[in-house]
């Protein structure tokens, strides 16, 4: 199978170039002030200008207001809105014509997976991520959930896997879940919010062989 890869939380030209050179299908920019990966509109405009057409630009948001989405889309020429802690109804209200919506489903138990069905009429893709403790960031913390929960699960729509992935376990994650797209952030960092070019290259090399 051919596995697509999203490198998320990019904030510098060099690490963005590493993601593109390594074959990432998607690059993610975080618009959430509490995150160490948050980017300004000025910075994302600079970064987005060097993303080739075949690579999708993903804006990552946490229950955003309309103005934030509008400004981020304009600055980053976004192709996808990835929405954490956002209800499907709210996502439908902020959906921008021509952009994909990715609904994030936080997973700890098998019952959590059923939340994906609420997104059928709104999202183009579901992103399964590890559920984080209360009062912490909703993603990018290096936490993973039990991948065997996805074994035999009937997916109603395209989906992706995130949470605690790294170069050592990505092959296992795909083997267990059959994920068509994997999403990594902290697993290619040397410190929170500091992407490592060598780790990006190694991860993309690993996924290119899956």
TrEMBL record:
InterPro entries for the chain: Aldolase_TIM, PRAI_dom, RibuloseP-bd_barrel, TrpF_fam
Gene Ontology biological-process annotations: L-tryptophan biosynthetic process
EC class name: isomerase
Catalyzed chemical reaction(s): N-(5-phospho-beta-D-ribosyl)anthranilate = 1-(2-carboxyphenylamino)-1-deoxy-D-ribulose 5-phosphate
One Pfam family in the UniProt entry: PRAI
EC number: 5.3.1.24
Keywords: Amino-acid biosynthesis, Aromatic amino acid biosynthesis, Isomerase, Tryptophan biosynthesis
Domain N-(5'phosphoribosyl) anthranilate isomerase (PRAI): 6-205
Pathway note: Amino-acid biosynthesis; L-tryptophan biosynthesis; L-tryptophan from chorismate: step 3/5
SUPFAM superfamilies, alphabetized: Ribulose-phoshate binding barrel
GO function terms (MF aspect): phosphoribosylanthranilate isomerase activity
Family listed: Belongs to the TrpF family.
Protein name: N-(5'-phosphoribosyl)anthranilate isomerase
Organism encoding this protein: Sphingomonas paeninsulae
Gene field: trpF
